[in-house]
Amino acid sequence: MADTKISSKQKNLKEKKEMTKADVDLAKMFVDYATPRKLACKHKRDEVEELKRRQMELEEECANINADLKTKLGPFYGYKEPSINELRIEAYKLYEEDCTLNRILPIPKHDEMGFKTAMELFGEVVKERKLVSYLNDPVRKENIANYLSVCKFVRSSSNQLEEHEVHGGAAKKMKSEFGTA
Q1: This prediction's pTM
Q2: What integer pLDDT is reported at residue 52 of this predicted model?
Q3: In the chain, how many domains are there?
Q4: Helix axes 21-73, 170-177, angle to 10 degrees
Q5: Closest CA to 115 of 96, 88, 90
Q6: Which residue, among 113, 129, 17, 40, has the nearest Cα to 81 in the 3D structure?
Q7: Where does a domain end: 71, 87, 112?
Q8: Which of 8, 99, 145, 160 could serve as 106's disulfide partner, Cβ 3.0–4.6 Å?
């Protein structure tokens, strides 16, 4: 029986052939093909990791900016400027009303000059109306009044911030950031 085990092992070894030169060359060709692609993939993964790290840094910077703004702006922090589309639409409505009152034919909406003219004439009015609407909200109005009572902003004749102790020195900081120091 031991003889049969040896003979079956020898038989298996004889059946296993060595790789031919052609087989080795083919295998080398596959390896050579894959190596630079694997390296490129590794570089891409490294780049993705670097971008993730940079994204986290930028998100942290953004969070710090927002926290700083919340502190400095108090109840004004929640105000959102109107979008460009909202501005254009509302400015054009005012422009049409003005043209109607002055018996002038407005430049049509589908003409880019219509919106451009409307924005030039009424863009700031729309922004101001939106801000006034925000400020006049009853709940917000009280918060803003309280906030402003502790602010000691004074505008000079040149419309620059003057004197200023606001919520932990935020006004002084704002003054230097706005270049009004």
Answers
A1: 0.57
A2: 97
A3: 3
A4: 120
A5: 88
A6: 129
A7: 71
A8: 99
User: Which has more pLDDT, 163 or 143?
Assistant: 143
- Looking at the fold, whether 128 and 178 belong to one and the same domain comes out as no
130 domain-assigned: yes
Whether residue 170 has pLDDT greater than 60: no
Note down the domain range covering 23: 18-71
d(CA 138, CA 9): 94
Q: Same domain for 121 and 175? A: no
3-state secondary structure the chain: CHHHHHHHHHHHHHHCCCCCHHHHHHHHHHHHHHHHHHHHHHHHHHHHHHHHHHHHHHHHHHHHHHHHHHHHHHHHCCCCCCCHHHHHHHHHHHHHHHHHHCCCCCCCCCCHHHHHHHHHHHHHHHHHHHHHHHHCCHHHHHHHHHHHHHCCCCECCCCCECCCCCCCCHHHHHHHHCCCC
* Beta bridge pairs of residue 161: 155
In the prediction, which pLDDT does 120 show? 95
In this structure, are 51 and 95 located in the same domain? no
The four Cα atoms 37, 41, 43, 46 give a dihedral, to 10 degrees, of -170
